[in-house]
Amino acid sequence: EEFEQTFKVYDENATFQYFKSFRRARVNYSSPLFSANARIDLHEAFVCGQRIKCFFFQPITIPKDTDDPHLKLPAPHKQFLISPPASPPVDWEQTLESRPVINYDLIQAIAQLAPGEAHEIHPQSKDQPGIIVHICEDPEGYQSPGKPCIQQTKCPERNT
Q1: Which of 59, 75, 124, 140 has an alpha carbon within 20 to 30 A of 86's alpha carbon?
Q2: Under 8 Å between Cβ of 132 and 121
Q3: If 0-12 CB within 10 Å is exposed, 13-18 middle and 19+ buried, where does residue 56 land?
Q4: What is the pLDDT along the chain (160 residues), one digit of tens a residue?
Q5: Which residue ranges form the domains of the chain, and what is each CATH number?
Q6: Partners of residue 136 on adjacent β-strands
Q7: Where are the transmembrane segments (predicted)?
Q8: Cα–Cα dist 98/115, whole Å
């Protein structure tokens, strides 16, 4: 009650949110002017026997221009960022990395492979053998051979 009255001096319509696990409280004022006055007067002040610190928080506004409530994806040039060094040297600046190289020909060739068919990878020539891949279908699926059995061995005798 004493805590709330201290802040309601600046705005009777102030609302409070208590975060007990963080030992924090959030005071919402109806005007930025009220919150500025409270921040100036009450920062480092003693309230309920404790010194308090006051901070501003910017209101979070979600644009209503779209019907999609989800966040937008980040720009693609930052999706494969390499971290800077732990202690960057003087005048170090981060450079934009090049986009990842995607070999679409390789992806298309892999997609066309089908079980039971032979695929010629490298044609035979006079000096080189041909390379033909036969894709096998395993009807039972891959099964792990299981845990290997380790034989118990006798501990060597110790000479003390």
Answers
A1: 75
A2: yes
A3: exposed
A4: 788 888 999 988 899 989 888 888 889 888 888 988 998 888 888 888 889 888 887 766 666 666 777 777 766 655 555 666 677 777 877 777 777 788 888 888 878 777 778 888 888 988 888 888 887 776 676 677 778 788 888 888 888 7
A5: 2-51 (3.30.70.330)
A6: none
A7: none
A8: 36
